[in-house]
Amino acid sequence: MLSLVACAGSDPVAESSSTQAGALGYYEFTLEPAAELAQGENLFRLTLRETGGTLPIEGAVIQVTTGMPSMGMDGPEVPAPVEIGDGTYELRDVVFSMGGAWEIICDAARGGVGDTAAFTYEVP
C-alpha cells in the first residue's frame, strides 16, 4: 500500500497524485486531490486507463469507499463519482473527519471487467 506525505516547500497537491496498477492488473488508476488535503470535504480526480496507460476507460461504474484503518472506522460519507470525460471521474464528498492516515478504495467495472486499487493519504 502506498502512503503519501507532502514535504515542506513542495506542491502538496502534485505530490499527492498517485498512479498504480489495479489489484487484478486490468486497469491503471491515477488518483489526485483537486486541492491540498484537509479535514472535511475534499474533491479528487480518478483517471482510469487500460494497463499500460494508453486507452481511457470511459463509462465505468465506480464505487468508492473511505476509511481510517488505524481507528477501525469507515468514512462518514460515501463519495459520489461523476464521469467528466476521457476516462476521468470526479470523486465528490470525500470527507475526512479527522487528521491521520486515510484509505480510499476505488472499485471500477466496465463490460464485465472489474479492478480495484487502494490509496493511502495523510490528512493534516
Describe this protein's structure.
The chain has one helix at residues 12-15, and strands at residues 3-4, 18-21, 27-33, 40-50, 61-68, 73-74, 80-85, 88-96, 100-110, 113-123. With 124 residues, it is mostly beta strands. The protein has one domain (3-123): Immunoglobulin-like (Sandwich). A hairpin with a 2-residue loop joins strand 7 and strand 8 (88-96).
In CATH, the topology is named: Immunoglobulin-like
Detail the poorly predicted runs.
1-14
In the CATH hierarchy, what is the architecture at level 2?
Sandwich
First-residue to last-residue Cα separation: 19 Å
Q: How many structural domains in the coordinates?
A: 1
CATH structural class: Mainly Beta
Number of helices: 1
Compressed to H and E, one letter per element, the order equals: EHEEEEEEEEE
Mean pLDDT: 88
Order of adjacent strands in the largest pleated sheet = 1-10-9-5-6
Based on secondary structure, the structural category is mainly beta
Main sheet properties: 5 strands, mixed
The overall strand count is: 10
Q: What distinguishing features does this structure have?
A:
5-stranded mixed sheet; 1 helix; 10 strands; 3% helix; 57% strand
